[in-house]
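Example 335, ligand oxa(dethia)-CoA.
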Amino acid sequence: MARKAYISAVGHYVPDKVLTNFDLEKMVDTNDEWIRTRTGISERRILEPGRATSDMSAEAVKKLCENRGIDPMEIELIIVATVTPDMFFPSTGNLVQEKVGAKNAWSFDVAAACSGFLYALSVGTQYIESGKHDKVVVIGSDKMSSIVNYRDRNTCVLFGDAAGAVLLEPTEKEDDGILDSMLFSDGSGADYLLMKAGGSLNPASLETIANDWHFIYQDGKSVFKFAVTKMAEVAVDILEKNGFTGEDLKLFVPHQANLRIIDGAVKRLKIDYDKVMININKYGNTTAATIPLALSEAYEQGKLDTGDLVVFATFGGGFTWGSTLLRWSIPKPTK
Ligand code: UT7
């Protein structure tokens, strides 16, 4: 019997502070109507200064441990997907390990922009399937407000801060847990969505600061074109590859970057909207956090039950894109 990984608990954290479209109207030349119709976003959360990606991640992990009824000392590996690490090093995973008291865990970060969580999930899955570990925590967490230019209307309306986490454990059950994943990269897309400075190519200098190179740059139209094709394609492909169709699907959990991109994937999958988890209206694009945050909320809202077929799909800077297929293993919450 093959050993597989399943998601045994979820947890998430969003900051209290809400930044609405109306707040943004006072900061840049934009309006609520434009933002809602072009993106589907009404508001997003902003973490206060002095707190960072590791703090949100730690809150999500504490919630996850509470949900599973485990002590953090039982965690063996922590993987954090993020583009906004607290600092270059030590890794955010290490900081989370300390903050939650997971003294027995080793930890590291994965960088794949918005696809980071699915990349990290596939790495965590390997450590379970190989028999190396029994409890792996995978986190998607980003404090996007730390790299957003609130003078640039092209990007500042899109992003928000949040963290989501899942616990992976082994199962011997056939047709349960993580069934498949498909992941892709295309480095020719690097120039369309990036933060130019702060790395080894353009270390911080007066010039990089003057040029706003420590903020996100995005060519929205090019990313949109790429995303709308690739996210739909990979979601359809993973179902087909495993002998399923949209009809078999119970919940589609897409990366929340733009409601119009989600619409494109929903049409290609030929599924109804009641099978799609959408919370972009409340949180905007939280980069690596969108999928674990949406998953955790879907679970809390009773949208998932044991045996449900679920697809995650994503795309992001790099370019990167991918999909995960799984059978949900946690019973509906009782309350
Ligand atoms: O997870 C990361 C991956 N990133 C994404 O998924 C983003 C993908 N791209 C998008 O979601 C969309 O391209 C955007 C939402 C970023 C932009 O929407 P769009 O429909 O592609 O608009 P656009 O960039 O073509 O701009 C249309 C117009 C322009 O004005 P003109 O040139 O037609 O006069 C923009 O200057 O809208 C203007 N505009 C705005 N107006 C009001 C751009 N941003 C804003 C704004 N408020 N915030």
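Summary: The radius of gyration is 19 Å.
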